[in-house]
Amino acid sequence: MIRIMPTMNDTQPRLINVQRIWDQAPHNAFTDLTRFNDRWLVSFREGEGHASDDGQVRIIASDDGAKWSTIALFQLPGMDVREAKLSCLPDGRLMALGAWRRGPIGEAMFQSVAWYSSDGQTWSDAQEVGQVDMWLWRAQLHDDQLYSIGYACDPRHGCARLYRSVDGEQYDVLVESMFDDEFPSESGLAFDPDGRAVVLIRGGRRDQYSRVGTAIAPYTDWNWHKIDRGIGGPALVRLPDGRYIAGCRIYDDRPERMSLCWVDPEAGNWSECLMLPSAGDCSYPGMVWHEDKLWVSYYSTHEGKTSIYLATIAID
After folding, report:
1. Residue extents of the structural domains in the chain
2. pTM of the full predicted structure?
3. What DSSP letter does each residue of the chain carry, written as one string?
4. Which of 61, 129, 201, 218 is deepest in the core (most CB within 10 A)?
5. Calpha distance 79→260 (Å, rounded)
6. Span 3-314 CATH architecture
7. Are strands 94-102 and 197-201 parallel, antiparallel or unpaired?
8. pLDDT of 71-89, one tens digit each?
9. What string of DSSP letters covers 4-52?
10. Which residues contact 263 (CB under 8 A, 6 or more apart)?
11. For every one of its 316 residues, what pLDDT tens digit does the chain have, with 9 covering 90 and above?
């Protein structure tokens, strides 16, 4: 089991700047962040509340990270549209991969859905992808193929399933079940230059251990370490110097918060290194390394309303 260590790295990230970039809906949450055609894009869900039935996905864009405008709004009648993650496809298009929910929590049906754009401005209609009640949480491009970890939305059957796609439209099952116990859910996935995959997966309940896993191609045999606390909405980035840093909500005996954490897959260590301004309903970051800084989108309620934030962070 991975223990939360006091420190595992002499270098600690430093917050340079953080700004609120969107707060127009009653509840603004569940972000992702990317750069496409030399612009910043942030995706997030808007609704009346965290799990309300009226969710829609908005994508905003900025040339400088300061001034933002809407470029897309995804709505599906009668559906709660949720958590669209942004990925580049092998052919150079951009994909927003999310899901719709229909029905009350605990009894709902889920279906992954994707939208596609060649220019980051004009988007296709929604296309259902993957399998019913297997939520494709995000897709990561590696060697001209996309990899995505789906998790079972049926509360009776826990499962983390690895998919592979060559076009972002058809997803084939690569690993039926990545491990057999507990109820995994959201994940962050990254790749080494030599092709090793590293994944951080949330446990299905707050008190469940989360996991760090590694595998080499063809990614059918995984090695797992448990983390001795719960996390929420993880994202994972490999820095240019080879270190891994994660962003997530942390569940422990302290107030809930959005934090950055060092992850060492080889040694099985995990260390919280920087809490971002946050409290309560928060986290679900998008993370991009750009111009020698880490850029992080996330949401939080620490200023009284659930809003979208963008932070820039220095890591020496």
Report:
1. 3-314
2. 0.95
3. -BEE-S-S-S---EEEEEEEEE--SSEEEEEEEEEETTEEEEEEEEESSTT-TT-EEEEEEESSSSS-EEEEEE--TT-EEEEEEEEE-TTS-EEEEEEEEESSTTT-EEEEEEEEESSSSS-PPPEE-S-TTEEEEEEEEETTEEEEEEEE-STTS--EEEEEESSSS--EEEES-S-SSS----EEEEE-TTS-EEEEE--SSTTS-EEEEEE-TT--S-EEEEESSEEEEEEEEE-TTS-EEEEEEEESSSPPEEEEEEEETTTTEEEEEEE-S--SS-EEEEEEEETTEEEEEEEE-TTSS-EEEEEEEE--
4. 201
5. 32
6. 6 Propeller (2.120)
7. unpaired
8. 999 999 999 999 999 999 9
9. E-S-S-S---EEEEEEEEE--SSEEEEEEEEEETTEEEEEEEEESSTT-
10. 198, 200, 212, 236, 244, 245, 246, 269, 270
11. 444 444 445 578 999 999 999 999 999 999 999 999 999 999 999 999 999 999 999 999 999 999 999 999 999 999 999 999 999 999 999 999 999 999 887 778 999 999 999 999 999 999 999 999 999 999 999 999 999 999 999 867 789 999 999 999 999 999 999 987 778 999 999 999 999 999 999 987 655 678 999 999 999 999 999 887 789 999 999 999 999 999 999 998 899 999 999 999 987 788 999 999 999 999 999 999 999 999 999 999 999 999 999 999 999 8
CA nearest 134: which of 99, 180, 178? 99
For tokens 């251990």, what's the residue?
209
d(CA 293, CA 252): 28
CA distances (Å), origin 51, targets 1, 263, 281: 32, 30, 12
Residue count of the chain, please give it: 316
Query: Per the structure block, which two tokens stand in for 81?
Result: 């549209």
CB proximity list for 63: less than 8 A, separation 6 or greater: 38, 39, 40
